[in-house]
Amino acid sequence: MTAPTEQDARQMIAVVNSRNVDKIAELYAEDATFQVPNLETPLHGKTAIRGFHAGSFAAFPDWTMDVSRVYVTGNDIVIVNSVRGTHTGPLSQPNGQSVAPTNRKFVEDQMTRIVLNANGKVESLRSYGNPAELTRQLGLPK
Question: Is 70 within a domain?
Fold first, then answer.
């Protein structure tokens, strides 16, 4: 695999912004790890990652990632971004409970690190942000 470019990274984000969970799952290796600020522990495997995205897009049908900067070094990609959306669908919690829509909007600043494997698939994705701010913006209990 040749090293990814900034354009490759932006194309990956375009796929995520399409909210097509099957296409998103194709970006990941079978044994990939995935962690975003509101997850205490990483998800493991393509199936779990696909399920997370399906649930997130059900809760936030207008969910979008806006990219401000992309840095690429070898198979490492760092993206400075924000995510935004409106909570108009049920939101599944890690404890299995569901939170009714608040119809509130959120914007969360993040930094995301993606590591690609030798086949160009996402081996790991880790986003850093402030989950307490997301909870506050949505009016959810702490």
Answer: yes
* CB-based contact 63:57 (threshold 8 Å): yes
Residue type for 101, please? P
Cβ-in-10-Å burial (0-12, 13-18, 19+) of 79 comes to buried
Supply 132's token pair.
């307490």
Residue 1 located in a structural domain? no
CATH number at residue 60: 3.10.450.50
Kindly report the backbone phi and psi dihedral angles of residue 108, in degrees, each rounded to the nearest multiple of 5, phi listed first.
-130, 125
Residue 53 neighbours by CB under 8 Å, 6+ apart: 16, 19, 21, 24, 25
- Residues 120-134: tens digit of each pLDDT: 999 999 999 998 998
Residue in 113, 115, 137 with CA at minimum distance from that of residue 127:
113
What is the pTM assigned to this prediction?
A: 0.92
Segments forming the whole domain that contains residue 127: 6-138
In a domain, 96, yes or no: yes
| Residue at 53: amino acid letter | H
Number of domain units in the chain? 1
Query: Averaged over 4-33, what is the pLDDT?
Result: 96
